[in-house]
Every structure is written in structure tokens, then in C-alpha cells.
Amino acid sequence: MTELLEPRAIGRDMVRRDGEAKVRGTATYAIETPVEDPAYAHPVQATVARGRVTAVDTSAAEALDGVLVVLTPSTAERLASVEDREYAVLQSDEVDFRGQVVALVVAETSEVARQAADAVRITYAEQPHDSTLAVDRDDLYAPEQVNAGHETDTAQGDVAAAMATAHATVEQTYTTAMYHNNPLEPHATTALWDPAADVPLTLWDSTQGVHPSRSAVCGVFGLEEEQVRVVCPFVGGGFGSKGNAHAHVMLATMAARAVPGRPVKLGLTRQQMFTLVGYRTPTIQKLQVAADRTGRLQAIAIDVVEQTSRIKEYAEQTGVPTRMMYASPNRRTTHRLAALDVPVPSWMRAPGECPGMFGPEVALDELADTLGIDPVELRIRNEPGVDPETGKPWSSRNLVQCLREGARRFGWADRPPPLHREGAWLVGTGVASSVYPTMRQATSTAVIRYEDGRYVAEIGAADLGTGAWTVLPQIAADALGVDAEDVEVRIGDTRYPVASVAGGSSGTNTWGSALVVAAREFRTKFGHAPADGDEASGDVDQASTDEDHSAYAFGAQFAEVRVHADTGEIRVPRLYGVFGAGRIINPRTARSQFLGGMTMGLSMALHENSVWDDRIGQVAKHDLAEYHVSVNADVGDMQAHWLDEHDPYVNAMGSKGVGEIGIVGTAAAVVNAVHRATGVRVRDLPVTLDRLLPALP
Amino acid sequence: MKPFAFARPGDVAEAVRTVAAEPAAVFLGGGTNLVDLLKLGVARPDRVVDVRRLTSREITDTDDGGLRIGAAVTNSELAADPRVRERWPVLAQALLAGATGQLRNLATVGGNPLQRTRCVYFTDVSTPCNKREPGSGCSAVGGYTRYHAVLGVPAALPDASAPETCIATHPSDMAVALAVLDARVQVLGPGGARTIPFAELHRLPGDDPSRDTVLEHGELVTAIDLPPLPAGARSAYRKVRDRASYAFALVSVAAVVAGGEVRLALGGVAHRPWRATRAEEVLRGGPPTADAVRGAMAAELAAAQPQPGIDGGNGFKIPLVTRTVVATVRDLTSGVPA
């Protein structure tokens, strides 16, 4: 048990501290960093999916006025470590995926850099590539573990036997598409290499973690951490794609080292973001579900096939939520990967849970249909008393309350019958559950200092638009027992103490815990009348831990879908989410996170689809006109609500994390509603109107 | 991206002379498409000639009861014009169905019909494309064809490596409405002025997919004339797309019902705005009941060739465009607001 902070600033609807600077346009993003006399870098990308660079002709590029240097595999510096092949830029002639960077131009202006990049002539020895994900490939393999350190496979009981004897079964394959994160701010780094300076390398990088970004660069270039400073006050979204450094950070560093003393700016174009900054793997999920006549699950199994790149393994933990979500005596989860000639996949909002709650939550809807049981009720009947995987009790689990509260708010009991028609529209409703683990990272340190009559807290945390600038002062204020206005928090710079990545919905939990430890240390040392300059620090590993409970946030999402009877166009006029996510630190920023996640889930249901052209080995779409994300007109009455949840086991704030759970389950709720409206069961995302046309009146 | 000279001539005649004199010179209107293409390296002109302040930005009544729309009038201004909204609702609706408010504020009437296809291979200079690079082949055949043509393409599956192959669609919504309204395009070229029926402005790929229109190099659109519709005519534009806004048409329909006459133009189905003359002919014989319209569309689509491809191809366009036309004519004839 943790002694929860008495909430005074926590729980208050406080305005974003960075809001004014952003609205006025004075918040500087990485590419806008005001530096003197910057040069500009622009990558040249491979136009074959597999092969070897046999010649690079840079003469035309170098002849252009304003070109400073053209880096190629034969002229670029040798890196200290090439172990991570995503980071091993310009180190070999091998082409491992189409779009891989094969040369880099540094020039006086962005325009000349782009022009010169176009003028670099590359000759390839092309080899046949293989970029097609399929469930029947004979080279699928089991990774040693899947993302976040989870076991690859788990099994309990006998799924096959339960499937053979159960009253009702569902056995279907579901697929989610490939998705690209597409934050509004393209990935960018401004880099300065000044060998004579105390800190020779400075990176202004758009990142979800300045310290993780520094670690990556230090490893690749063989630099000590003291030699590198990473700065990132503001981020225009990341959704996981800025959680790890990607190749462009190494390229910007390399470019800066090629022109010492000269800052270099490297901003990726939207088109380049479709190959260089990660994406969510497509998933193929074979589900088996068995139940008795009352709907109690006898078995649940998910066998996942997904892809990774040939040069770097990333194994999305798609099967993981099936391990703990519902009670069932027999269960199985497996993950198999195909290593393809494709760009490196990576994190995207709720890796694992987001795709992994699509198949199961649609399968449950199919089961409810088969049994004639209300899908809300079916989920309630399968509520496990303890975590089915670990046997541990829940720190708190309010899925049932979320379902009931959501059903009440949505008017579920009075929902229209299947295939209901109102005027030109077929109307349907659907439900699905959400889940996301409550995490805290192992490393983060905060320093609190009394300075000029107020408290200054420093921690190298990142605010990717989520609200860290605003909620961390609320936490520090309550931990110190002062007003939030009396606390200034400084983040986004490796000059401040080490902080973990803003990922896994763990930022507030982790950094907040460090702040609480530091505040308590401060009060112990200096009491309530500190002197100017008094300072204390706290590490997250000094915060109390709880190993005895299973900690997750839960939620329920309800969708109303309308399908146009003439054209099959799909609209979602209502989408309600109710979440049990611990104590909400700031309702304003939390609501934005929930609604943002739900919007992204709606987008996954209806729009997003990185159509893969395996003939050439690349995504066919490469801008926001073609890669559709939901726009304002697609979002109707979208509401996020939360339970007043008190969880004494997770951390001193009682917070569970809110950044990711909103995207989990949304697509299933929409698909389930489409089925109710039209009778068409779509098992492959996204749902598009052409899938519904054959069933229209 | 390639450097280019930028010119802002004093008048229309000088603009035409400037472009005509240089093979790789282009006119710049609102720039909503050209600027993207410059950045992508798809358009590589030596000289960009800005005509935004040269052509008329007026919408004036004409003696025949129609309108003359200056080429510099923006899409937003045209869509908001009370005369257009009242008498040619199909045009106002088409304009508002296109792009976004910000883009419509920049896009011009002269430039909009001349925008290029959004075929994903046309805009990706790393892939072969006969429209962008004549003779290089067509990457779209057998590729991502969701937004591609089903009409005006060869009856058999096109040969991707043939230099004439192109299955791109024209992306403009406004152009589909202008095609159904029998608009006329006023053009000034090095050889003088001429008038082109709007339905003849755009061409099929033929043996040269790089050419979208019949305009000769140096010819500038100066105005578009909108003839009056018969008294009592009703018209509507129905666009079907993958999201509620800011998406190109999967299919679209511009329809006019006037007395016994039904006029139809289709978008998202061909290399040009597709005036459905065959369907119009079939409907000329009797009342446009749902069955009659369905039959007329079957005749129109008899030569349609669905394109197989990644993600299921585009065969769905055939039932979709049929259903959309049936519904649009039904709503126009039954008095239901579109």
C-alpha cells in the first residue's frame, strides 16, 4: 500500500502551462531552434527494396552552389557501434528496405539540400525482395520475447479439448492493417558539433525522451553522456514514433560532425516518415473462443502472425491482453514473426493492446450473437476475480462498472434492434472493452530546489503534447504541500536529472513518483521554511513498490454507427468511453488524452491503412491526403468519462496512466456496431464502404 | 525540387507570351496543387508565371441569363455566390465537397480544372508513371487502384509496361459539375482566344497520358461561362468518399433534372470528368424511375473495366456509382433535398 497524496492541486482542471506559448507560436520546436547560420541536411533514399549500392555519383550534387558535403557509405564516418542496424546509417552498401537512407546532402539552404539530394545518382545491384506478410509462410519464427519483455507464448489447460466440447465456439481470423503514427510535427533534429566545447554535441530533437535519445546517440557514436546534451521543450505529437531515436537522429549527428561548428537542421518530410520512423506492424490474429450456454468462457486462444524487419527485430505483443482480460480455464497465446525486407516497425500508441484487443473483442461480440446474450452482459459474466495469468489480485479493476456506467450514459438498454433503419441510414450500436497496463519505469530522478521564494523541480521529462508541463507541477505541489502556482517545473533537457521515456502511459506515474520522493526528502531535510538554494533529489526506485497486485486501467467503449443505405458511407455519430484509470491528475489534459485515443481508434476502425505495395516493397500512400486519419467531420458526439477510482497500490498519486487506453477497443466497438447495423461482420480493418455494399437494401 | 525563375507579368497577354516562349514554363494560379508537385519533384518547370492578379476575379451576369466566372475567382467565392447557390446548386455543392476551407480559399476557378491526378504513383517520382515520365510504364496497373478509373480504359486489363497505359482519374469535383452544366472555357493562347466546351477540355489518355487536357502550351484559361439551366431544373452533386471531409471521390455524381431531361456527369471513374451521355440517351425515352436509371447506368457502364489491385481493386465502383446515380436522381425527382 502506498500513502496517497492528499489531492489539492491534483484533480484540478488547470490550464496548460505551455498553452499560451503554443497558441502564440512562440514555443520553439526542434526544427525551429534559433541557431546561428544553420546548414540543412536532406537524405537520399533507396529506390530498391533489397540489393546493394554499386555506385554513388555525387558529382552533380557537389557541383551545385551551396552544397557543403555529400555523405555516402564510402565517405561517411565509421560509427562506434553498428549493432543496431537501424542506426548504422551509411555504413555499408547493403540496401535492406526501400526508402533506406543511402546518402545525405548537407547544404546552405533547405532548397539546395533537396535539389542536391535529387541530383545524387545511385546505381544498385537489385535483388529480389520479399515483403509479403502471410499466415502460411514457412519461415515464421518465434521471437525470444515480445515487446516490453513479455513471454512469446503462454498456455494453460487444453484449448482444443474445450473447443471440441463447448456449447458455443467462435473460430475466426481477424486482421489489423499497417499503420503509421503520423504526428503533426514531422520528426526533426537540429544538431551542433563543436569539438572545442565542454559539451561538444548538442541535439535539439523532437523526442519522447531526451535521456533515451542521448543514450542511443552515445552508443552509436561512442560518446560519453557528458559529451552530449539533448534538448526538447516541446513536441508536436509522437504516438510512440519518437519514443526511440530513429535513423535521422544519427544522420543529423553525422552531418553536424561533418561540418564542425555549424548547426545542421534535418527535418523529415511527411513522405519520408512513411519509411524512416517506425510503424505498427499489420497483424493476423487467429482467435478461438469457447463458452458454455450461459456465456462463461471455457477457452480463449489467440495465435498472432505479424512482421518485423530483416535488420532489426520488433515483436508487437498483440496476444498479451488475451492473457489477463477475461476468466477462462483454458487459454493459449502465441506470437510468430516474418522477418521481411521492410522498414523497421516500432511502437505506436498502445502497442500490443491496441491491435490485440481488436480480434478478441470482435470475437466476443460474435459469441454474444451466437448465444443470444447481450454483449455487455457477456463481458460481465467473464469478469475474473484475480488476474488469470498471474493469480494475483487486482490493484483495482472496474471494468464491470465502466460497462454499466457506459451502458447507462449511452442508453444501451434501449438500443435499436439489428438492421434498424432511420430514413436513409442503417443504425447499429456496439460495445468493446479497453485495457492498458499500469507501468512505472525503473529510472528517473527529480531535483527540487527552493529558489527565489518558490520551488523549482527539475527532471528531464518530455511533454509530447500530453500535459507534463502542467500535471507535474500539480503533483509536486501536493507532495510539497504548496500551491501549484508556487512550483516551477523544468523538463525537456538532459541538463536536468535523468528521466524515462514518455511511453507506455508511464510518464506521469514515473516522473511523478520521483517528484514525490524528492519532495518528501526535501521536507525531511529542510522542513517548511527552507533557505534559498536548499535542494533535495529523489529517485523513482525509492518510491514504494507493490509486487502483490496486478495493475491495469480498464474501460468500456460504446459506438453508434450509421451506414448510408444508398452508398454504404459509414458515420459514427456517438462514441462514448468510460474509464477506470486511477486518480485523474488533471481532467482537462486527461480528457484530451482519452478523446485523442478514441479518435485514433475511430481512425483505425474506418480510415487508417498503410496499403502495402509488395511489388515494389513500400507503402503506396505517403501523405495525409492519401493516408487518411479521421478528420473533424468524422467525429460526432464523442465523450470520455471516468470513474472516481481510488487505487492505493499503484503509486503515490494513485494514477494509472491515460495516454493509450483510449485507442484500445475502439475499433472493435465500431466494427460490432457496423455488424448490428448491416449484418456484415468485418474482420479485417479498416471497415470501408465497399465491404458493406453487397448487404445494402 | 528544382530551382525555377518566377515571373509576375503585367497583364494576361504578357503572361501568355512568357509561357509560350519557354517550353518548361507554367502558369501559377492558387498553387494548391502545383506547389505540392514542385516540392515532390513531379513538376519541374524552369519558369513559374503567376497569373493570380491578372485574370478577372469577377462573376458577371451574361446576356443569355448565365454567368461568366473570371479565372481568378476562388472556389470559396464561387461556392458562396448567391446566384450560383440558387440557380446552379450542383456547382456550389461540388465546390464545397472539394478539399478544405483553407484550400478552397486559395484554389481558383481557372486552376482547379487543371489540377493533376492524385494517383499515388504519379506523385511518387521513384516509381514508373507514363503521365509523369512518358514511356516509363504504369505502376498503378495491378497496384493500389482504389482511386483509379473504370471507364475510358481498355476493355482488357491494361499492359503496365505499354507507354500509353494510364488508369488515373481526374480529381476535381468542380469539373464534374461544370461538365454536366455544359460550361464553356474561355482560353487565351499565343494564337488568340478560343472557346472550348467544358466537356471537351479534358481528354482520355489516348496515346499520350502526360496530357490531361486539350490546351496547348501557353494557353491560359481566362474565364468559364455558365449557361442558364432550363426553368424548373433541379440539380445536385453527390460525392461518396472514404471519410467525411478532405478526401477525393471514390465516385461522384453531378445530376440535372429538367423537364423530361436528365443530365449526368460522373467523377472518380475516369481520366476526365465523365459525361454519361449513353445513360442520358437511354433515359430520354421515359420517366427516370429507379429501374430506368439502373438500366441507363448499366448501358453507361457496359464497357467499364474494373481494375484488380492491392486492397481489393476498384470493382466496387460499378455498383457504387450506379447506386449513387439512382439515389441522386430519385432525390431530385422526388423533391428530397440532396
Beta-strand residue percentage of chain B: 15-25%
Instruction: Please give the CATH class of the largest domain in chain A.
Output: Alpha Beta
Uncertain runs of chain A: none
Tell me the count of domains of chain A.
Answer: 3
Helices of chain A, by number, come to: 16
CATH superfamily grouping of the largest domain in chain A: Aldehyde oxidase/xanthine dehydrogenase, molybdopterin binding domain
Outline of the structure:
With 697 residues, chain A is α+β, with helices and mostly antiparallel strands.
How would you describe this protein?
The complex is a heterodimer of chains A (697) and B (338). With 697 residues, chain A is an alpha+beta fold. Chain A has three domains: 19-28 and 441-542, Aldehyde oxidase/xanthine dehydrogenase, molybdopterin binding domain (Aldehyde Oxidoreductase, domain 4); 33-128 and 182-276, Aldehyde Oxidoreductase, domain 4 (2-Layer Sandwich), CATH 3.30.365; 147-179 and 279-438 and 549-695, 2-Layer Sandwich (Aldehyde Oxidoreductase, domain 4), CATH 3.30.365.10. Chain A contains 16 helices and 26 strands. Chain A has a seven-stranded mixed sheet with strand order 3-5-1-12-9-10-11, sandwiched between helices. The longest helix of chain A has 20 residues, at 507-526. Chain A starts with 18 loop residues before the first helix and ends in a 5-residue tail after the last helix. By secondary structure, chain B is of the alpha+beta class. Chain B has two domains: 5-46; 58-338, Uridine Diphospho-n-acetylenolpyruvylglucosamine Reductase, domain 3 (2-Layer Sandwich), CATH 3.30.465. Chain B is built from ten helices and twelve strands. Chain B has helices spanning 12-20, 34-40, 75-80, 82-87, 89-97, 101-106, 174-180, 277-283, 290-300, 317-334, and strands at 5-7, 25-28, 47-50, 59-61, 67-70, 184-189, 192-197, 220-226, 234-241, 249-258, 261-267, 274-275. In chain B, the strands form three sheets. Chain B has a five-stranded antiparallel sheet. Chain B has a four-stranded antiparallel sheet with strand order 9-10-11-12, sandwiched between helices. In chain B, strands 1-3-2 form a three-stranded parallel sheet, with helices on one face. The chains are: A alpha+beta (697), B alpha+beta (338). Chains A and B meet through helix 3 and strand 24 of A and helix 10 of B.
